[in-house]
Amino acid sequence: xxxxxxxxxxxxxxxxxxxxxxxxxxxxxxxxxxxxxxxxxxxxxxxxxxxxxxxxxxxxxxxxxxxxxxxxxxxxxxxxxxxxxxxxxxxxxxxxxxxxxxxxxxxxxxxxxxxxxxxxxxxxxxxxxxxx
Length: 132
Prior knowledge:
The chain is of the alpha+beta class and 132 residues long.
């Protein structure tokens, strides 16, 4: 997951900007981390999304259907609906993996992608990693 599709993350929640300015966030790691956060928050009230290369963290606290988001790298807090956040994560991941599938289909031949797709709750496209 590391080293491919790197850049910054643009994340704005209820007008609060949690975007990174690091330049080295990995798109696949970010997608897996967000999906994992949503999955965990369905069953527990807190989760932290750790940055793979630093001590930075994105914190989530869920109280019923409300989600509070904060980050170690910005001094802001946002509150949003958990169902809306979950739906936004699902849309984001679908768009980004659709982009990878469309433009970088050879990346799907990497055997590690089978686990990535399982972790994000998507089906690996036919022909990828010997599938289909």
